[in-house]
């Protein structure tokens, strides 16, 4: 029986009041609900305050470079497709530096869970605008306001064919834990964009700001309706829908690779002669 204590308790480097604390707690609750022990999970992250989250958990951890969490996560999943792989980083790391990797991962549809701490700033480097910063938001690096159009992660994922897309809020731990658990159980690439106030560097998108705007999806909302999901994904203003916006079963990348039907690659022997023959076949 997996217990929340199995994932440990560590001193963090986060600012008091940071939304990362609630996300960490929600993740632990979700892992217990999924009955996953630490040795069954690989946590992969990039660089940033959000990317420190796996440091404060018992489990297998791989830290990639800034924006490079997804490539090693994909490699690990293909090497051992029976392993639960959770990728966790911030909006700057995932949608900025790692933007192309994010697009490729969604299109491939491997069975991985992507958790994005979306605080709409670069918190580690003291508050520059991120890809999801609201237009006209002023920072020390953008004193005249953000001029770029905000990147729409949920709509982008939907357009690229993502089968599970959700939006959560750091201040609602129980609801967020449920979203993360559903994302982990989903067979395919699951994106949970988590709105996370940054109490130090984002004075606009505060807990109070989100509390006024976040609303659960309607009782009759159809999560299999892509057109409806796209409309909800683009709602971000006076009203912000939270919950699972879209969920539909799809064939995963791993299911389409016949060599994985024989079992995880990591458990199979390595034939050096056969490999040498393959390399030799590419010589001109």
Give a verbal description of the structure:
30% of the residues lie in helices and 17% in strands. The protein has a single domain (4-259), classed as Rossmann fold, CATH 3.40.50.970. By secondary structure, it is an alpha/beta fold. The protein has helices at residues 20-33, 70-79, 91-97, 99-108, 153-159, 173-185, 207-213, 226-233, 272-281; strands at 41-45, 60-63, 84-90, 113-118, 121-122, 128-129, 164-169, 190-195, 214-216, 240-247. 42% of the residues are buried. Helix 1 crosses helix 6, helix 3 (91-97) packs across helix 4 (99-108) and helix 5 (153-159) packs antiparallel against helix 8.
Report the portion of residues in β strands: 15-25%
How many separate domains make up the residues? 1
Helix content: 25-40%
Strand order of the largest sheet: 2-1-3-4-8-7-10-9
Low-confidence stretches: none
CATH-assigned homologous superfamily: Thiamin diphosphate (ThDP)-binding fold, Pyr/PP domains
Task: Indicate the overall shape.
Answer: globular
Total E-strand runs: 10
Please give the radius of gyration in angstroms: 19 Å
CATH class label: Alpha Beta
Number of helices: 9
User: For the terminal residues, how far apart are their CA atoms?
Assistant: 56 Å
Write down the secondary-structure element order: HEEHEHHEEEHEHEHEHEH
CATH fold-level label: Rossmann fold
What's the architecture in CATH terms? 3-Layer(aba) Sandwich
Mean pLDDT: 94
> What is the SS-derived class?
alpha/beta
Largest sheet properties: 8 strands, mixed
